[in-house]
């Protein structure tokens, strides 16, 4: 296909409650939405999961926008006739920028699959029509507030709880939630907040029958994670450190991780995500689908991925209402702790243009090959 036009749009959505992690607190989500129009007039949508500031990953919205405009889009235009499966190769000369690359590839994929009349879930190899929902719970202002928030998610039907932790907010909150919900699948995420010397402290988490501890150390500290994994009975799971199939292979081989959080934006797209999934499935390594506070556009595509057979743990695939009062698509609603996997062609959802226009802060268009 040939791309006639690209639209890069920044939108601003308030969160239903502040989301606090070890890298900061957010009370709204700025999102970069990518739209492509093919020369046949077919539209493809995608969400770039970069955040406003480079605090989770080195990518951030303004940077991703500039990378797309200055480098990635001109390279795709130069290639001329493209399909989703060729985009990664076309963009390979430009280093990093996985989130920017993923968004462009996904927009192409959406348009391509709409043309083919196939859902993303089918294309990726899904074998489920609904997926169990987990929820990521931020660092709370107090234990009481945490209990109230977690209880509301348990009551809503969530099947797995993930607690964000950091030094000073770890053993006691986890103990409290474990005592209150002895059988709930529970895991923790530190977003790199600890250092190598914290192994004996973190060992205390082994008492709480956690599914895993996610990214306790620096993203580059593969050796530190491998050492921690020998100290703890709780499985170590990498998030930030995994930016490609190659890095997943290395981290597994080095025993720095025994579970993988697959976040499509972080690894450069859904096609790379499927490669990581396939590699892990062959070796019986459990994987789950991470989240980046996506709107319905990104959430829809994540659900398609989470429906693949190797996604044996519930992901951070929560309902739209977990983060947003109003989503930019028809909201994803939980039924009995599950979300339905979209089955219409492409990612299966489109934005509500009136609402999206009302929260748009800037739009830029780039011409394609005509
Ligand atoms: O580390 O998984 C993370 C949100 C933003 C950046 C990083 C992370 C998260 C989450 C929320 O934990 C996941 C979600 O429910 O979208
Ligand atoms: Mg994480």
Describe the 3D structure.
This protein has 370 residues and is an alpha/beta fold. It folds into two domains: 1-116 and 352-365, Enolase-like, N-terminal domain (Enolase-like, domain 1, 2-Layer Sandwich); 120-338, TIM Barrel. Helix content is 36%, strand content 21%. The chain contains 13 helices and 13 strands. It has helices at residues 61-79, 84-91, 98-116, 120-124, 143-156, 171-180, 199-203, 222-231, 245-253, 264-267, 270-282, 296-306, 353-358; strands spanning 3-21, 24-38, 43-48, 130-132, 134-137, 160-164, 186-189, 213-214, 236-238, 259-262, 287-289, 338-340, 360-367. The strands form three sheets. It has a seven-stranded parallel beta sheet. Helix 1 (61-79) crosses helix 3 (98-116), helix 2 (84-91) runs antiparallel to helix 3 and helix 5 crosses helix 6 (171-180). The termini are close together. The structure holds 2-succinylbenzoate and magnesium ion (MG). The site of magnesium ion has 6 residues, from loops. Residues 143-235 form the Mandelate racemase/muconate lactonizing enzyme C-terminal domain. This is o-succinylbenzoate synthase. Its cofactor is a divalent metal cation. GO terms for molecular function: metal ion binding; O-succinylbenzoate synthase activity; racemase and epimerase activity. One of its GO terms (biological process) is menaquinone biosynthetic process.
